[in-house]
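Look over both lines:
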Amino acid sequence: MGYSIFRTHSNLKIEQSSKGFVRFLQMSLGSAYEIETQLLIASDLNFIIQEELNSLLKNLDSIIKMTSKFKSTLK
């Protein structure tokens, strides 16, 4: 009996921590989209050249896709 109580408690902890991790990943995605906006503004203000912008956006897009896919496996 004691074991099943411990096991249930552990399962609840894991569920709570994965919900928190999913929330963290969602916030990370929001931050990635903010970075995208800042990069576009930097380009508009000629702080970075187009080739650099394209490279950064391509890398950022890869990060967003990987994070989104990983997050979808946790739900």
